[in-house]
Design a protein that fits this description.
The chain is an alpha+beta fold.
């Protein structure tokens, strides 16, 4: 949300600088994410001033040039050479001083320097309107009619002073601050200055020649609907002051009528809509729902099929607008419009939210209606709009205000304990300070005892519904930074610290992975449903009911796509050697039951390390990732896990799975190329995913220690010729089952496949480490052990052992 500082100062008198105001607002919960300068013309006319031509003589060496002396308010006249044919002594002119920069209309900017023109010194430039970017005329210099002193900034004369604009990250609960007046109301509580609504006392009805009747059929969806007619208007451009304020907050002016509705919306927070009164058939407005499937063309020219739950603003024959969301193309204001009906209403947030989502429409109006507007602002905003229309487009009010409000929305009564306020804040701030804050925020104190306050909370405070909300209002204005922290902290609740502590385990594993060169990423759990396009994948998706973007409409079912988004962004920016990891949640829905679990995902792409003079670059490979995964499992005390071929799935067509007791602990392999290309990633990506919740649940916080062996270990090597589909893990598991006491380690140190052995075969060179902790191993024991191992390899795997 953008808030103009100049506009804000029209509603509350504050003399603090913008930076200080930004700090105050941020401390009060309206986080100012940035403050930027808006300039009505590029450069803001900095260094350009008003001056007066004192003398003007022809240049002796150029017939078309004049040598002038100009008073620019410095005390010493400046000599300026001017080529304009209309320059003359006594004129009030616009002067670009030395070192100022001009941004001409349609041209490149240039800097004014001291110079000599045909031998005559020139200290500045007398300007035409196109030379300073405020117009297109180059017929001659601007000659002004003004009594302002020489040296006055030209921006002040033209009313083009720069403006500071606050960029506020408005949270969903602060609907009351979604306008300049809403922000001013917070500043009233923060500074003590008085926030004042624009006066509407001048509003008056000239005649009732264009009265429009209103009928609200669905009062649940539209509790309040008001309107008034203004006739005899002339549609055209808005005045410069209004266009400038709209542009400052990022809006493009359209015409004086539409600009007024936008202006009031951002000033008071009340959305409005203007209908061409001549297009309201039957002179009647009907607020109702229409038949499912009715085709309606909105202002953007798109034909939309309506739902039975879409609230429509209709005339006597047909729909004219989607209530609270978007107007229709047939009833909008055009250059030929001479009479308008201005709508000001309060629509149910639920109805507007549902309709906006169904049609993928997000407008400034729906943004506010969805969060809750102020039903008490409806008439004030309507009068303000009618007065502004008369000011900028002429005309007269030609009907009484119609206001359909059968069930008024009243204020909420909340009783709060003063002691409870101080307890939750953690500091005694005084009853009078509490009352002042609440009153400045628009909350009325209707009753008071020594221990309690009875409050009347107005409907614009949509997020204040209970005592704790009142305390939050007080605290954010009082200031979190003003709460002192006691030297002796205490608590009425002692949290349970589980052992082993999952957070400590998680931190240790994350640190280990980072120490191995991986970079942690944090991505959005909300993702795009289009990623899950294969048959059956859509079935388990968890849809987001109130999504703000069509690209973010479901909760992720897999960690793959969020990681690929990060890979794509980095690869597109020439960061190709990537080692990434993320601990995040995945979601699914099975038979109506929602499930949430955590996964640890790792991604490898590009080279293991950058090339250097010592070694060439080496592409990442399966074992670069498998080694890290295995070590993570060992650090989590996963015990003797098994390695099995992976059951192919959409993401990993091949790879391995680490399992224990039939449960998959981790899966890893090359990410399927089709999935990677779907995300525009052409690189080979190695991917691993660990079942984090299960691993934490089974983690045993055990620390074992044993005496170092006194006796030496012995290594023996075997060369096994096996079928090509036999894995090393199968060999390892057979060895560990065969010799449980002496065998300490099994390791493969060479693999051969080629024309030296039979087709369909491969050779493993495997080392076996033996150790007896009680005595030195004898040759007899060693030979017996190795013979038993060889027998089992031959029996179970059909191995041929090279001796």
């Amino acid at each position: 949300m953008l808030i103009s500082f100049d506009w804000l100062k029209q509603l509350i008198h504050i003399d603090k600088p913008a930076e200080e105001i930004g700090t105050l607002l941020t401390g009060a919960g309206l986080e100012v994410e940035g403050i930027h300068t808006y300039e009505a013309v590029q450069g803001g006319l900095e260094g350009i001033v008003l001056g007066q031509v004192l003398t003007c003589e022809r240049h002796p060496d150029a017939d078309r040039l004049s040598i002038t002396t100009v008073d620019i308010g410095t005390g010493t006249p400046s000599q300026i050479v001017c080529g304009a044919p209309n320059v003359g002594a006594g004129q009030r002119v616009v002067v670009a001083t030395v070192n100022s920069t001009l941004y001409p209309t349609g041209g490149e900017p240039f800097k004014i320097k001291k110079s000599k023109i045909r031998g005559a010194a020139s200290e500045g430039m007398i300007c035409a309107e196109d030379e300073i970017g405020i117009g297109t005329s180059h017929a001659g210099i601007m000659v002004l009619d003004t009594d302002l002193p020489n040296g006055t900034p030209a921006a002040a004369f033209f009313g083009l002073d720069s403006d500071k604009v606050f960029e506020i990250g408005l949270t969903p609960n602060r609907a009351d601050a979604a306008s300049h007046y809403g922000v001013a109301r917070d500043l009233q509580a923060l500074t003590g200055a008085k926030a004042e609504l624009p006066s509407v006392e001048a509003f008056g009805v000239s005649n009732t020649s264009r009265s429009i009747t209103v009928e609200v059929e669905n009062t649940a969806a539209c509790p309040r609907y008001a309107g008034v007619t203004v006739s005899g208007i002339k549609v055209g451009p808005s005045p410069e002051w209004m266009q400038r304020r709209l542009r400052a907050i990022g809006l493009s002016p359209i015409n004086n009528v539409v600009d007024v509705t936008n202006y009031v919306l951002h000033e008071l927070g009340q959305p409005l809509h203007a209908f061409d009164a001549d297009k309201i058939k039957g002179g009647k407005i009907v607020v109702k729902t229409v038949a499912e499937g009715t085709v309606f063309k909105t202002l953007d020219g798109v034909e939309r099929k309506l739902q039975a739950t879409d609230l429509m603003i209709c005339n006597a024959e047909e729909p004219m607008a989607i209530g609270g969301v978007f107007g229709g193309i047939e009833s909008g204001v055009s250059a030929e419009t001479t009479s308008i009906f201005i709508e000001s209403a309060y629509f149910s947030p639920d109805w507007v939210r549902r309709t906006g989502m169904a049609h993928g429409l997000k407008t400034d109006a729906s943004f506010r209606f969805e969060r809750g507007t102020d039903p008490d602002m409806v008439i004030t905003a309507l009068k303000r709009a009618a007065l502004l229309v008369q000011e900028v487009a002429g005309g007269e009010v030609s009907s009484q205000i119609v206001d359909v409000y059968p069930n008024p929305i009243g204020s909420r009564e909340i009783v709060v304990s003063i002691a409870r306020i101080h307890s939750l804040i953690g500091q005694h701030i005084g009853t009078e300070r509490i009352k002042t804050i609440l009153t400045d925020l628009g909350i009325t104190i209707t009753g008071e005892t020594e221990t309690h306050l009875t409050l009347s909370v107005p409907p614009f405070k949509v997020d204040v519904t209970r005592e704790a909300d009142v305390v939050e209002e007080v605290l954010r204005i009082y200031g979190f930074n003003n709460i002192t922290v006691s030297e002796h902290m205490s608590s009425t609740f002692l949290a349970n610290f589980p052992r082993p502590n999952p957070e400590d385990i998680t931190d240790a594993i994350m640190s280990y992975i980072a120490d191995n060169g991986f970079h942690e990423i944090i991505t959005n759990s909300i993702t795009n449903s289009n990623y899950y396009t294969q048959d059956g994948e859509e079935a388990g998706l968890v849809e987001v009911v109130n999504y703000n973007s069509e690209d973010l409409d479901v909760l992720r079912k897999s960690m793959v796509f969020s990681g690929l988004e990060v890979l794509r962004r980095n690869i597109n920016r020439r960061q190709r050697d990537l080692k990434l990891f993320e601990l995040g949640k995945v979601y699914s829905k099975l038979e109506g039951e929602y499930k949430e679990s955590r996964r640890l995902a790792l991604y490898l792409a590009g080279n293991v390390s950058a090339e250097s003079w010592k070694q060439p670059s080496i592409k990442t490979a399966f074992h670069d990732l498998a080694g890290v995964v295995q070590n993570v499992l060992r650090k989590l005390n996963a015990g003797d896990f098994e390695m099995q071929p992976l059951a192919p799935n959409r993401y990993l067509q091949q790879g391995i799975a680490y399992t224990k007791n039939g449960t998959v602990l981790a899966e890893l392999g090359p990410l399927d190329a089709l999935v990677a290309r779907q995300m525009e990633v052409k690189e080979q990506v190695w991917y691993a995913e660990l079942n984090w919740d299960y691993l934490l649940k089974k983690y045993k916080d055990k620390l074992t220690a044993e005496e170092l062996p006194k006796y030496p270990e012995v290594r023996r090597d075997l060369s096994l010729v096996l079928d090509k589909n036999v894995t090393f893990d199968q060999v390892r598991q057979i060895a560990l089952r065969t010799e449980r006491k002496l065998l300490q380690d099994v390791n493969v140190f060479d693999v051969y496949e080629g024309d030296k052995i039979e087709a369909g075969k491969k050779a493993y060179a495997i080392s076996f480490t033996l150790l007896d902790r009680q005595q030195t191993l004898t040759d007899k024991v060693i030979e017996s052990t190795m013979n038993r191992l060889m027998q089992q390899f031959e029996k179970q795997l059909g191995a041929f052992i090279r001796k």
